[in-house]
Amino acid sequence: MEEVIGILVLGFIALVFAAVHDWRKHEVANWLNFALIIFALGFRFFYSFYSDIGFDFFYQGVIWLGIFFALANLFYYSRLFAGGDAKLMIALGAIIPFYTNFADNLNLVIGFFITFFVIGSLYGLIWSFYLMLNNLKGFNKNYKIQFKKNKNFIFALLSVGLIVMILGFWFDLFFYLGILIFLMPYLFVFAKSVDESCMIKIVKVGELVEGDWLYEDVRAGKKYVKASWEGLSKEDIKLLKKHFKKIKIRQGIPFVPVFLIAFIFWLIWVFYFNGVFFF
Predict the structure, then answer these.
(1) CA distance 275 to 196
(2) Domains and CATH numbers, the chain
(3) Which residues is 220 bridged to in the sheet?
């Protein structure tokens, strides 16, 4: 039990530091993610070496670190995660699976991801409403623009949703699925409007940091700086400083607190409900 407490305390402390850093700086330092991996694997190795539980505790950390590496890259290239979030997810691969066998650890991992995505959805929705209320005039204007711009897509989804809801008279599941499809275009326009009206900021180029998201492609002399998902590089920032005083960037919300909140609720699920699914 000592090994479980040790690895979870290590993960909790790291997530607290990461959440505070992200809240203040809107980024996650690479050293924190790499340090968490090193300390987690180091703890697993030395505990396995000096205790009688064997090296399965260490091997499981290595195996799941590899699995989380693959999952984090999938989320990153699907544009669900930014770079820092993906690296933090990789590091958690050495923390979350604390059992010495794969099957039990799989149950833990599934439980964590269910908790993570539920908390993440609620967190994103709350942040979106907060940003909307802080810039209601700009949001209302952009909402009308986005609705008009995407009207064909919206009406197509509304039609599909209505048809699926009608099928619900014969199959109950289709009714709830139809409601979900019916709401999707409104959620899409809402999210797009919040993004365009509340997440764009003009900053001094001297305040730019590596990883900031450029709002749109800009021409800097004879070169173009692309607005990419990977964010600005050090070379991009140097080039922008030569040609601009201010620039538009797209701000993200501090997402690392979701990792911390989900981790806490996951711990409650593991120890209060014994980490067992009831379905």
Answers:
(1) 41
(2) 2-126+254-272 (no CATH), 129-198 (no CATH), 200-250 (3.90.105)
(3) 223
Contact 92, 68 (CB under 8 A): yes
Burial of 25 (0-12, 13-18, 19+ CB in 10 A): exposed
Residue type, 231: G
Residue 192 · residue 209 · CB < 8 Å: no
* Structure-token pair, residue 271: 């120890």
For residue 168, the Cα-to-chain-centroid distance in whole angstroms is: 34
In terms of Cα–Cα distance, which of 103, 120, 88 is closest to 275?
A: 103
- Dig out the tokens for 58 from the structure: 């260490």
108-159 pLDDT tens trace = 898 899 899 889 888 888 888 888 888 888 888 888 888 888 888 888 888 8
Distances (CA, A) of 34 to 43, 84, 263: 14, 11, 19
Q: Is the pTM higher than 0.90?
A: no
Mean residue pLDDT across the chain: 83
Cβ neighbors of 113 (< 8 A, separation 6 or more) are: none
- Give the C-alpha separation, 21 to 24, whole Å: 5
* Buried-exposed string 45-82: b where 16+ CB fall within 10 A, e elsewhere: bebbeeeeeeeebbebbeebbebbbebbeeebeeeebb
| Alpha carbon distance 137, 245 (integer Å) | 28
Using alpha carbons, list the distances in angstroms from residue 230 to 5, 147, 241: 36, 29, 19
Buried-exposed string 215-251: b where 16+ CB fall within 10 A, e elsewhere: beebebeeeebebeeebbeeebbebbeeeeeebebbb
Q: Is 94 helix (H, G, I), strand (E, B) or coil?
A: coil
Question: Are 262 and 15 within 8 A, CB to CB?
Answer: no
The answer to whether residues 216 and 227 touch, using CB atoms and an 8 Å cutoff, is yes
